[in-house]
Amino acid sequence: MSNLFSNNALVIYGSVHIQITKINTFTCMKKLYFVLAFHLLIWTPVSFAQTKIPKADSVGNIVVSRLMDSLWVHPTSFFNRNDPNWIRLNQHLKHVNILQLNNLIHSVYFGKSSFFLNLSHSEEGFIGVLNKEANNGKMKKFHKKIRSGFRDRRLYPQHKVVLIEGDSWFEYPVFLNDITDYLMKYPNLAIYSLAHGGDWVSNMISSLKYEFDYVKINPDVVIISGGGNDLVGDSRLSGLIRLTPKDKDDPFLQHFRDYVILRMMHKSVPMCNEFYCPIDYQAYGDSMDYYRQKIDTSLVNQIVTGRRYLNKNFYRWTVTTKLEYKILFESLRKVDTNRFKSVKIITQGYDYAIPSFHKRFGLRMLMDNGEWLKEPLMAKGIIDPYVQKSIVKTLIFEFNEMLIELGKEYNNVYHVDARGFTHFYETLKNKRPGTYWYDELHPKNVIFKNLSAIFAAISNGQIPKDQKVVNAIEYFKAHHPLVNKN
After folding, report:
1. Whether the Cβ atoms of residue 34 and residue 208 lie closer than 8 Å to each other
2. Is residue 77 domain-shared with residue 171, that is, in the same domain?
3. pLDDT tens digits for range 365-394
């Protein structure tokens, strides 16, 4: 056994080879247990009376395998909800397992011939200790509320239980008050947090913790925050960058510019694929000139510039992350279809982060800053700060649009659009750009506080039912009337 789980062990599951590096025996066994449990108990129909997989399942597995191959070759054929490949994948979703997702993710970053078990470090080492201590404190407050009769519907019809599964925007153990910290200040909300700083969406799925606790606490609201660490952890960002950018005069970029403008104006146009944007220009007629005057031209220019530097792996990562979110949603639906319809699910896609080596007071003084964004970009030869910022803006813009597009498939999924809010707040307070960023990935407390108000408003039913996307800047302006007079 010690030889099997050495620092460079090879574990075989079916026809999938998993190379596990630098993890001990216990961690390996623990992670593999959850991976296998996820595959066997959640997505594969099990009957102990059967010794063979039903023929329909075999057909489904074959279809999914072919679709996964198509995803690798033509990832943008899965971008929009009406794309035939995305529709077919949804029809066979129960046949998708976490091993296939890990295979896709690591193929994006390390090539098709490489496969490593996709493990975050959110429960290990120093960060693991901090996450555990912070979560223990939050859980004590949750249980205290429940024991006080918090969920007596007759006495407290406005009380809500909120389950949070997320990353460091919802669990930053020290030096920052994260969104969860501020949500806990609302007396009518009981927060049950599974968030871990540094966590990945793939790790959330494979651990099954969110599904077990969903059944246990029967929440009114589920908040999901993930994807950032999947994208930038372990210097992964460099794997999405082209060595030679697209030509500035490439016709695709003009169509992409119009797509960005229309999306900024909240128009429901399909997402662009790798080569063109399926925009029905006749539907907008002469409105395009008006839209171009209404939006922030400098921001559009940056997003278009950043798009020149993204390679095909960017699309593969986007679709794979979309599939992970889809599986997460559907696993909750599978528990209780009727109950699922009444539960509000809230997602978010971060703000336009700034690549920087600048260190700030607190934990960042003891650690490197720039390891997530700036250094991986520089390692790819992207030295110009303007281009660095542009690439990150494009990534954040498209990540949000992907989540918004996915949310259209559900009546109970809401999205908090935080893009540009930190810069807006800095401008409002006459501060220089970057003032309200704590590090490359996390804004400061005041930003998290303002964003938490939106999550609370959605949870408490204070947002119109037909408004599934809540823009943070527009929400702030609506609730601070003096802002519009300045």
Report:
1. yes
2. no
3. 555 678 889 999 999 999 999 999 999 999
